[in-house]
TrEMBL record:
Residues covered by the Chromosomal replication initiator DnaA C-terminal domain: 354-423
The keyword ATP-binding is assigned to this record: yes
Alphabetical list of SMART domains matching this protein: AAA (SM00382), Bac_DnaA_C (SM00760)
MF GO annotations: ATP binding; DNA replication origin binding; lipid binding
Residue ranges occupied by any AAA+ ATPase domain in the UniProt entry: 138-268
Organism of this sequence: Roseinatronobacter bogoriensis subsp. barguzinensis
Record-linked InterPro entries: AAA+_ATPase, Chromosome_initiator_DnaA, Chromosome_initiator_DnaA-like, Chromosome_initiator_DnaA_CS, DnaA_C, DnaA_dom, DnaA_N_dom, DnaA_N_sf
Transmembrane domains' residue ranges: none
Location of the protein in the cell: Cytoplasm
Protein name stated in the entry: Chromosomal replication initiator protein DnaA
């Protein structure tokens, strides 16, 4: 049962979090309302309790287990659970004192071959490729940012894999910012701070994922800053990821955020329909290797790409569920199966936004009257926001063009199409517009 829960969590919290926190746990069973786990360290136990408590509990409850508390015992698991994916640890061992600095495990599937490139991520991909060549450092750091599940971690692992193959002489270290902090705190506690510094300063390529995590954690930020500077001074490549641009990370020290901007800052944009479709096809080929090939209607891919728009991880989870279900009952994936099997995911994406909410928010944002948005006026200050609202309606709801047209004061579907295309066109060059749209999208989704 725990294995099932653990697998579901993998999709919810992501491969790398799962590997770091959930996989090391061994479930020892439930008694008297307490579920017991063996964790490799107290830190892992505390972390899981703090971070994943609710997710674990809600799942235990759905399978009818009567638990009220979780407890962790510290110790190495009796038998290590076999992992389904190929992993390799990036190791750095230079101190000679037997100290070993181990990076986070790399996911074998997160390589460049499996990364689907489209307009929204082509710059990030190109920059990652450049770093992965292992040639002379041209920009430092490479700062990748973007929303959850858009492929930051995937790209960083891909860089690491590629460098391992091309430049085995280089010491490549990939880890999350929280692991950086954990190591640092541990080194402080064990009075091994000099070792910590030496180890981190001896790597050739340092990659730190989700750096927003250290914002507000003063001594960790301080140490990170020094590590960062020391490596840059030695002309060692650094790759950083975060969920937003350096200047927008709250409580990140100004001197750090300005150093981050000295290199190349690239943005992973939210996926578009074509990219999602491409990713679905690629993942289907991947899943076919473990589930056997399964017949899926093209309409199913289109439907999913259209409906599950926020997060590639969720999209992937949906497809995985269809594969599992289909192989279980030995039928091909039909539209009906999609409805049955994914009703929960589809409901939550359905409930998201209405055209009316979009119109209201957009009008508010651009400071125009709702009646003008729906009315006939064609001045730029009104027509532009109206087109943006049309675009968002097409992107964020499942309404058809004629349906959207009706909600825009009875406009024709060709007018809506024109508006949508116009915005797509303008987005290619207008960064301010992109920011407006992303902001609105976030407001509408929350
Ligand atoms: P992030 O770190 O930005 O939150 P991840 O790198 O963990 O996102 O990506 C989430 C999931 O989506 C992963 O399984 C990843 O393989 C997949 N993914 C995201 N973008 C792409 C892409 N362009 N091509 C293939 N898979 C992708
Ligand atoms: Mg990530």
């Amino acid at each position: 049962q725990w294995t099932g829960i653990s697998e579901e969590l993998r999709y919810e919290i992501g491969e790398s979090n799962h590997k770091n926190w959930i996989e090391p746990l061994e479930c020892l069973g439930v008694s008297d309302g307490v579920v017991r786990f063996r964790a490799p360290s107290r830190f892992v136990g505390d972390w899981v309790k703090r971070t994943y408590h609710d997710q674990i509990f809600s799942r235990l409850q759905t399978i009818g287990t009567d638990v009220t508390r979780m407890e962790f015992i510290v110790g190495e698991p009796a038998q290590r659970p076999a992992t389904a994916t190929a992993t390799a640890a990036s190791t750095v061992n230079k101190s000679g004192a037997g100290d070993e600095l181990q990076g986070a495990p790399l996911d074998g599937k997160y390589n460049f071959d499996n990364f689907v490139v489209g307009k929204p991520n082509e710059l990030a991909h190109a920059a990652a490729r450049r770093v992965a060549e292992g040639g002379p450092v041209t920009f430092n750091p490479l700062f990748l940012y973007g929303g959850v599940g858009l492929g930051k971690t995937h790209l960083m692992h891909a860089i690491a894999w590629e460098l391992k193959a091309k430049r085995p002489d280089l010491q490549v270290l990939y880890l999350s910012a929280e692991q950086f902090m954990y190591r640092f705190v541990q080194a402080l506690r064990d009075r091994e701070i000099m070792d910590f510094k030496n180890l981190f300063r001896s790597v050739d390529v340092l990659m730190v994922d989700d750096v927003q995590f250290i914002a507000g954690k003063d001594s960790t930020q301080e140490e990170f800053f020094h590590t960062f500077n020391a490596l840059v001074d030695q002309n060692k490549q650094i790759v950083i990821s975060a969920d937003r641009a350096p200047g927008e990370i709250k409580d990140l020290e100004a001197r750090i955020s300005s150093r981050m901007q000295c290199g190349l800052v690239v943005d992973l944009h939210p996926t578009n329909y074509e990219l999602r479709l491409g990713i679905l096809h690629r993942k289907a080929a991947q899943f076919a290797q473990s589930y056997g090939s399964i017949k899926i209607d093209d309409g199913v891919f289109e439907f999913l790409a259209h409906r599950i728009t926020t997060n590639v991880r969720v999209l992937e989870g949906a497809l995985q569920r269809l594969f599992a279900f289909s192989s279980l009952i030995g039928q091909e994936v039909s539209q009906d199966m999609v409805q049955d099997c994914l009703s929960d995911m589809l409901r939550s994406s359905e409930r998201r936004v209405t055209v009316e909410e979009i119109q209201r928010k957009v009008a508010e944002h651009f400071n125009i009257r709702l009646s003008d948005m729906l009315g006939p006026k064609r001045t730029r200050t009104i027509a532009r926001p109206r087109q943006i609202a049309m675009y968002l309606s097409k992107e964020m709801t499942s309404r058809s063009l004629p349906e959207i047209g009706r909600r825009f004061g009875g406009r024709d579907h060709t007018t809506i199409l024109h508006g949508v295309r116009k915005v797509v066109e303008m987005r290619e060059q207008d960064t301010q517009l992109n920011e407006d749209i992303e902001l609105l999208r976030r407001l509408l989704e929350s």
